[in-house]
Design goal:
With 275 residues, the chain is an alpha+beta fold. The protein has a single domain, classed as Creatinase/methionine aminopeptidase superfamily (Creatine Amidinohydrolase, Alpha-Beta Complex). It is 31% helix and 19% strand. The strands form 5 sheets. A 4-stranded mixed β-sheet has the order 1-14-13-10. A 3-stranded antiparallel β-sheet has the order 3-4-6. Strands 7-11-12 form a 3-stranded antiparallel β-sheet. The relative contact order is 0.19.
Length: 275
């Protein structure tokens, strides 16, 4: 059985909950304000995240600096956030265009990662709005078919078929994955509190290297309690002018099936991108 809950992260991933809450508050504060740069948005988001308590806002996925990236305009078509030309800069956010936001916080109590990312569009171009809706519809179809799969590889291959049926392809690239593209990865944890105010390089490496990817070669199954991401980065196969759309979800396997944390759908609804 597939269940959806905005409270999913609250129920099983506190770092994700705080990353979402602080992102929404930052958008409420800065949306439409003239002259807001990528770096200013990033830093205000991190400051609010710190205020949530018991979270390392300077994340495990570093670079980019502080484990966080905010990009606007054509920069949402990034390849890897590891590359310095894809780090947050002094470019001003276009409040009639697209905004991509990513963070990789870690819970201070047990060292669980709580990544989040989303692409938002604030303008009135119906082509782009239809594209965002199509990406969301395709991703929801992947969730509805999760129980057809026995392994992570099955999910990956099924997702690629679904995306193609919707005129889309996913461009998720990871330097630490042996395969060229993937759909997401497991949520690792240290199993202990981080040692310092920010994560050490050793802790970051431990969290990164412990991940298992949802890719074409994956043969691992979904054991109870496992958390993993479904985070396609979707582009249109028919119109290269449309932006890349990221909608990042967390999924947990439990005794009754799968629970999908769809917290970011609140933002998609707020800006009338779905519904």
């Amino acid at each position: 059985m597939i269940r959806y809950t905005e409270r999913g992260a609250e129920l099983f991933n506190s770092a994700r909950k705080k990353a979402y809450s602080s992102l929404e508050k930052t958008l409420d504060s800065l949306y439409g304000v003239e002259g807001v740069t990528e770096i200013r948005f990033r830093d205000e988001w991190l400051r609010r995240m710190d205020g949530e308590g018991d979270v390392c806002s300077d994340g495990w996925y570093c670079p980019p600096p502080r484990g966080t990236a905010v990009l606007t305009g054509d920069r949402v078509m990034f390849d890897s956030l590891r590359n310095d030309y894809n780090w947050s800069g002094n470019g001003k956010i276009d409040w009639q265009g697209v905004l991509y936001a990513y963070a990789s916080p870690v819970d201070r109590t047990g060292g669980q990662i709580g990544d989040i990312s989303v692409t938002l569009y604030f303008g009135s171009d119906s082509r782009i709005r239809d594209h965002v809706r199509n990406c969301h519809k395709a991703t929801m179809e992947v969730f509805e078919r999760l129980e057809e799969a026995d392994t992570a590889g099955d999910v990956f291959r099924m997702s690629q078929e679904v995306f193609l049926d919707h005129g889309l392809k996913s461009l998720v690239i990871s330097r630490t994955d042996d395969m060229p593209i993937n759909l997401g990865h497991t949520f690792t944890k240290l199993g202990r509190a981080p040692e310092g105010e920010t994560l050490s390089e050793k802790e970051r490496s431990e969290l990164s290297s412990g991940r298992k990817f949802l890719n074409d070669a994956a043969c691992w199954g979904f054991e109870e309690g496992l958390q993993f991401t479904v985070e396609p980065q979707l582009v249109s196969t028919d119109d290269e002018s449309l932006p890349k759309i990221t909608q990042h979800y967390v999924v947990k396997k439990d005794k009754d099936g799968f629970v999908v944390c769809n917290d970011i759908d609140r933002l998609l609804l707020k800006y009338k991108l779905i519904g």
